[in-house]
Amino acid sequence: MKKILIPTDFSENASDAFFYAAKVFGGEKVEFIVVYSFENEASNLTSRVDIGKSEYVLDKLYDDSILEGNSFIDKMKQKLGKTKSTFRFISTGMGIFRAVNKLIKEEEIALTVMGTKGRTADENILVGSTTSKMTTKIKGCSLLIVPSISKFEAPLKVGFATDFSTFYPLQQVPPINELILNFNSTLEILYVGEESTLSEEQLKTRSAFKNSLDNLNVHFHHLKTLNSISESLAKYALENRLDLLILVNRKHNIFNKLFREAVIKRVGNKMEIPYLLLPIN
Question: With contact defined as beta carbons under 8 Å apart, do 136 and 97 qualify?
Fold first, then answer.
């Protein structure tokens, strides 16, 4: 059975991310593993009490989180209605990044999904610190990041941003295969720059993409270079109504620029769409 991991803080955005993942990938039999870390709460509370009471504090944090976690899953089941998927909740005092990577390895997680920001994030910030750090901390697993959504929209138009420096076998990546086949999605391959600027190696990589994706509905686009790569992608996503953007999760990836640059506000916050970050194996 395929397993999808949902790190959560029980926020509304976390619920949105959970719902989106269940709608996109829950058509088949899937186990959703929801994980919550109470490490920060434990650190704050146990520092204020004597050693004898620390164990009691930790037990209470665990018990309370189990109740909230089960309630979180019950609400999602009611929202989803009939489903073939199963759900499991894990509460841990381990740090969330360590817990996620441990579960990815032990449970053979196919995909990790989380919201853009949690309960404590500033409303004017598009991506919270935990999600931003997860993009660099996660190991060997695709990461789907979902913004707050008022209603579910199927990923019918999917973009993949590339500089054609490296070939990535998109058809062999389960999350991409599933969402494109399930929704008959159009795949837009996006390169920021003029076609004439491509080197011989980049042209070979582009040909490799074309040959590997010839059975899908694929379009290649060369985007006009604006002030930055992220501005070019943001403008295209907004004007062409992309439903999801795929990026390769390099150490210094486009994703981080997309949310740190003020350009997002200039092209409009409506371009907030889910992002799928692919790991480099």
Answer: no
